[in-house]
Design goal:
The protein is an alpha/beta fold. 39% of the residues lie in helices and 13% in strands. The strands form 2 sheets. Strands 1, 2, 3, 4, 5, 6, 7, 10 and 11 form a 9-stranded mixed sheet that branches. Strands 8-9 form a two-stranded antiparallel sheet. Strand 10, helix 13 and strand 11 form a beta-alpha-beta unit. Helix 6 crosses helix 11 and helix 7 runs antiparallel to helix 11. The longest helix is centred in the middle third of the chain and has 20 residues. It is globular.
């Protein structure tokens, strides 16, 4: 896996633009420090003065998931946050107090629950399997939506004695919600409001050159993963830090690490706080199955939002048809509010438009009022509170 990751990084470097990134530091910086890169999510939450709890949930197919909770007052409304691909519950706290969404919600008195999908840093356990077994990693984001989200949502509701919760997802955290709500429609009744940040379902118009190149080799990569039993995408942390030290400098000009992020997500120099990058490296990538990445690549090529494509023969065995079934988005009856950005390379406005047109109970589709806002800005923009989170929290209070 380390060799594959090195190859991936070389691909990143070879595709970044050589044009310098000019950094505008007129906006405020986050209240974080370098030590945050080495702390767990519970340690981070405690460090910044908040109470924290760790909970564990077992899915129907045996995965043991860890949830992190910033408890509200007795009876306070639960808000569930779900991270994206290769990420974890850390996404919602890394920007620090007064900026990270988990803290902002806690400051308003909400009962904040942070989910962790199977296979990431905090959910690497199973009743009968271990992460060093190939079988442990035989899932894509379909299983996260079909098994993990229902298990975590049921746990939160049972624990808090509430009938419904608010759901906020970013990127794959929205993808998995659409999977759950369309394949297990009874869960729609357990959602007050689903707020989708940078929603990803259709991926036809993804603009990231890195991912578009990867999608061309998706069939070859899938075969290699199957033949050599490479099922986990979780590079060695020592190698990752070594690469980061080489590519990430204290200056934004010609900062290759910054350019790689911008090639993945879209460029927004004025909203990035450079001291957050090594902290991100400390928490991301948090681990995932290679099938999750392959599943997204399949969507780029097929132009459809559908289940994992195993190939015609296995599809017949698994689905009863030579092609995977598409997700029936008309089954999503929970109210959905969509936030998108014009400069988001991964959740293209054209794909968001297509998705929005197929969701029956769409409350509204809101464009972030900053022209260069990108995919990662939904979590880490310096002005994310004013540009996005104030509205997200206002919608919960309605």
């Amino acid at each position: 896996m380390d060799k594959i990751f090195k190859t991936f990084v070389l691909l990143c470097i070879s595709t970044v633009r050589s044009t310098p990134v000019y950094y505008n530091n007129n906006t405020r910086d986050f209240q974080v420090d370098s030590a945050d890169a080495h702390l767990t999510v519970p340690q981070l939450i405690k460090k910044y003065g908040y109470s924290v709890e760790q909970h564990h949930v077992v899915t129907e197919d045996g995965y043991i998931l860890e949830l992190h909770r910033i408890p509200g007052k007795n009876g306070s409304l639960p808000v569930f946050l779900m991270h994206g691909l290769l990420c974890s519950s850390a996404d919602w706290v890394l920007a620090g107090p007064k900026d990270a969404l988990a803290y902002l919600l806690a400051d308003k008195g909400y009962d904040v629950w942070l989910g962790n999908a199977r296979g990431n840093t905090y959910s690497r356990a199973h009743l009968t399997l271990t992460p060093n077994m190939f079988a442990f990693w035989q899932f894509s984001w379909h299983e996260i939506g079909f098994y993990d989200l229902p298990a975590m949502i049921d746990y939160v509701l049972n624990h808090t004695k509430h009938r419904k919760l608010h759901y906020i997802g970013h990127s794959q955290g929205t993808t998995t919600f659409y999977v759950m709500a369309s394949t297990r429609p009874d869960y729609n009744d357990k959602i007050h409001l689903m707020q989708a940040l940078a929603p990803v379902a259709y991926t036809e118009h993804i603009r990231s050159p890195l991912l578009r190149v990867m999608s061309r080799f998706q069939d070859t990569l899938t075969v290699l993963f199957e033949i050599f039993g490479i099922a986990e995408f979780h590079p060695n942390n020592a190698i990752l830090h070594e690469i980061a030290n080489l590519l990430c400098t204290s200056s934004a000009v010609n900062n290759l690490c910054l350019n790689v992020l911008f090639q993945l997500a879209g460029a927004d120099p004025e909203q990035i706080d450079l001291k957050l990058i090594p902290i991100l490296v400390g928490h991301t990538p948090a681990g995932a199955a290679t099938k999750q990445i392959a599943h997204f690549a399949q969507g780029i090529r097929s132009r459809l939002f559908r289940r994992y494509d195993h190939g015609k023969i296995k599809n017949l065995f698994v689905y009863g048809t030579p092609t995977p079934p598409v997700y029936n988005l008309t089954q999503i009856t929970a109210p959905v509010l969509v936030y998108y950005a014009l400069n988001d390379f991964l959740a293209s406005p054209a794909d968001v438009d297509r998705l929005s047109a197929e969701i029956p109970n769409l409350v509204e589709r809101l464009q972030v009022a900053h022209g260069k806002f990108n995919h990662l800005d939904f979590l880490f923009a310096k002005n994310v509170k004013e540009l996005l989170y104030d509205e997200v929290i206002r919608r919960i209070s309605l």
